[in-house]
Amino acid sequence: MPQRDLSHIVVAGLCGSLSAGGSTQRVLEVALSGAQEAGAQTAFLDLRDYQLPFAGQVKDPKTFPDVVRLSDELRAAHAIIWATPEYHGSYSGVLKNALDLMGFDEFEGKMIGLIGIAGGALGAIHSLDHLRSVGRQLHAWVLPQQVSIARAWDAFNADGTLKDKELETRLKSIGHEITRFALLHSTTAQDFLERWEKAAENPGGDQ
Ligand SMILES: Cc1cc2nc3c(=O)[nH]c(=O)nc-3n(C[C@H](O)[C@H](O)[C@H](O)COP(=O)(O)O)c2cc1C
To answer: How much is the pTM?
Structure first.
């Protein structure tokens, strides 16, 4: 079967941790590599690279060039993976602030993938539940599959790779799945559906 060209699909990863080389950044990179394997282009959005105001602090956040830049990059993506550390039973404040500066323009109708990582044994389930609710509020399509990682401090080898190969596969599958569903929501698929809907009825359908 010919390989489908998915290079027009852009998957962005929004990293909810400011720790350089931290666990959130690393697992997000693994998930994005899964999207690349599926044929998509990817963009890693590192919030350390943006000078953002606090949401509500200024009347028009779009007067901040980095708010506009983040908005442009998110709008250019067909799908976005939100990755967060678990902080006090929820997702990080820095991710919350970035999401609050954005809105329907950036997320409505988009595919969203969720990854959470925590220091404790219970993983980042609370973060993921809370982010799923934010995605619904923004009218985004949040993938049912998600990855919650426990004991972040014990998850990596000295060279930064994941100890658990099955976890690596699950992270990559978030990248694969989000690319596949983004394709289904892409213009190409919509064109196909429109043609399908306009097509003559199956003459055998009523018999
Ligand atoms: C302010 C703060 C709050 C945290 N709260 C929790 C928590 O509620 N549950 C948990 O399991 N880990 C908690 N942790 C641990 C982080 O989730 C964990 O260290 C994570 O890997 C940090 O991600 P990073 O390496 O990208 O910074 C907390 C860490 C910080 C700094």
So the answer is: 0.92
CB-based pocket (< 6 A), ligand 1: 17, 19, 22-24, 85-89, 117-120, 152
CATH class for the region spanning 10-198: alpha beta
Residue to mutate (ligand 1; options 86, 115, 149; most atoms within 8 A of CB): 86
For Cα atoms 54, 55, 59, give the angle at the middle one, nearest 5 degrees: 105
Question: Going by CA atoms, what residue is nearest to atom 8 of ligand 1?
Answer: 88
Instruction: Please state the atom number of ligand 1 nearest to the C-alpha of residue 152.
Output: 21
Q: What is the pLDDT of residues 174-201, one digit of tens each?
A: 999 999 999 888 777 777 677 767 776 6
For the chain, what are the domain ranges?
Answer: 10-198
Beta-carbon contacts of 22 under 8 Å, excluding residues fewer than 6 positions away, are: 85
